[in-house]
TrEMBL record:
Disordered: annotated segments: 282-322
Residues making up the signal peptide according to the UniProt record: none
PANTHER family: 14-3-3 PROTEIN
Protein name as catalogued: 14-3-3 protein
Organism superkingdom: Eukaryota
Gene3D superfamilies: 14-3-3 domain
Protein family per UniProt: Belongs to the 14-3-3 family.
InterPro entries noted in UniProt: 14-3-3, 14-3-3_CS, 14-3-3_dom_sf, 14-3-3_domain
Domain 14-3-3 per the UniProt entry, residue ranges: 24-297
Amino acid sequence: MTSETRLDQWPDNSNTDTTPFCSKTFLARLCEQAERYDGKMPVYCSAMKSPTYEPPLPPSDEKPPLFPPVTPFYPWIKLTPHQIGGELSVDERNLLSVAYKNVVGTRRASWRIISSIEQKEESKGSEQHVSIIRDYRQKIETELEKVCQDVLDVLDESLIPKAETGESKVFYYKMKGDYHRYLAEFASGNKRKVAATAAHEAYKNATDVAQTDLTPTHPIRLGLALNFSVFYYEILNSPDRACHLAKQAFDDAIAELDSLSEESYRDSTLIMQLLRDNLTLWTSSDGNDAEGAAPKEDKPEEETAAAPEDKAEEPKPAAPES
């Protein structure tokens, strides 16, 4: 078996092999497909004893990760409110945003993959596999909840109270809305309702400030509109409101495109393209086109400048306009 083998190509041993070793091997493969390589070495060590299991070899030209393996989550970026003296500079806040985004982004991607696999295994009636997958999904959810809550604590207790400019207030309120949205993505029942309400309130606060302090072409205002519209579409299941918000932001920016500063041009036009892509996806004449496709979100600064992916996470809040 090679590292390219996917779960749906594995032999179904759920009814014939119920040994602990089989479960560990399955979990190791599950980790691999979810691209979760931190915190699973004991599982890999057990699984690699199997003569049929071939662990993936990294490409010879593979660069080392931006951050070292994490135990248990992200000690290299974790902050407590008292560690932040005053308002962060633009570079500092972007670095903080990107660091947390990298941590939470990998887990959101893993959660989506695992949830999809769980549905497939349920449809096949693989009770043993479903039990393993469900436990693993809950582990990811626990990690996500921990990361998001840490971000929200720093925002509420330090970053938002110390924000002085309109731009920084929009940035942090948007960030608060994003992390409540991430919680709502996997929560259920009252927890989901609480997270969704908090996300909506934060996005609304950011929008109120953005409309008075930032131009329609400002990358942070555009990124806010992009993520707020994704919230309406994915969390509140309100495609009409999502499309209205995205179209309004796009049209307002188009009307003032000539006044866009050169330093913000690339970032603003990239987010405008993402707004248009989502509008195309959401207003498709064939409803099936949008099924299973993740809307595009805004990416924090310092991330790769490559073209956004189909499941784009967040484009770059650019440097402030002059």
